[in-house]
Amino acid sequence: xxxxxxxxxxxxxxxxxxGVAAAQVVSWGSIYYSFSLFVVPMERELAWSRAQLNGAxxxxxxxxxxxxxxxxxxxxxxxxxxxxxxxxxxxxxxxxAWALTDSLAWFYAIWIGLGxxxxxxxxxxxxxxMTRRFPGDYRTRITAVTLIGGFASTVFIPLTQLFITLLxxxxxxxxxxxxxxxxxxxxxxxxxxxxRRAGAAPALTPADSGDVMRRALRHPVFWGLAVAFTAYYAAxxxxxxxxxxxxxxxxxxxxxxxxAIAVIGPAQVAGRIVLFALHGRVTTSAxxxxxxxxxxxxxxxxxxxxxSEYALFGFALLYGGANGIITIVRGTAVPEMMWRxxxxxINGALTLxxxxxxxxxxxxxxxxxxxxxxxxxxxxxxxxxxxxxxLVFVKTSRYARRAARPEx
Length: 408
Hints:
Strand content: under 5%
Number of helices: 17
CATH topology of the largest domain: Growth Hormone, Chain: A
Largest sheet: none
């Protein structure tokens, strides 16, 4: 029976999906989510300021943003195996190099490289692989990958802290590098073979890829999605990095704040479970509209009820659920609202401004806080950006439904 189950999973591609999802947990957890846990021990040992340390993360996120398009174009042409395997190797090597660093300049260089590794291993390349390998059922596969990937912080934040406590921060980084070697490398190198099998989307030549991008850049839906996702991720990033000092300044206890924030992760997963259970009965446009509206509503809850414990947990549920759904919408919007051809390049181009916004928005929010002396203006700015995202997405969805769509 076990052999039959394995054969069925392999035939239907679910073994590949589960493997990629497990690699997502490790890639997100070991590089992205682990960063904040290394700040204090590095600050203590190396005497670097918190601003200097976080500057490396910002450089890494910018490197990831500018790498998104070439990564997507490479997957369109060659498939995901080489790109994602190379990203896993690069991530493991640079995590080990981070463990040896005593130079701030070297640390910044490492994080530029880690940003490229993130661009080659996180959701965007995984989405491109799912869309390429399963053109008839990409949405279900993308939802499954994000559903499992949503547990990255739940698994790796306590695991990384355990490594730091038991081994020290330098050896903890070596342990995280080994996690990439043990999980991500074999998944990407072995399970992603056969990108050109029957049924997979055909590879694009450089000329074809250029034609697809020129076509996309003339399409109103592309620009609508670019504006909507950029505004969304600017608001989301600013809120994510400022929510704790914002709530602390309102006199709420840290235990209450931590308890509420702990709800965000499960809410993200719950949103994805709902979409997975509905299995195609809710379109990407409808799911995106619901999530895009839920996000500014969550910010309004914080503005309207500044000291309410119940409102705080209501915010966490709306905020987490919205982001969980948007992650899937980001992966399925291009093939459903535009077309599948050249997905990797188009989605990479859409990712560029959003990732730049993710990197810069926390600094913009901090600057606004410094000028105004409080978080009220920051909250209204976040709400405004989220409202713009919702309005533009709704209008783009309506246009996409009305427009004569090219053959997919």
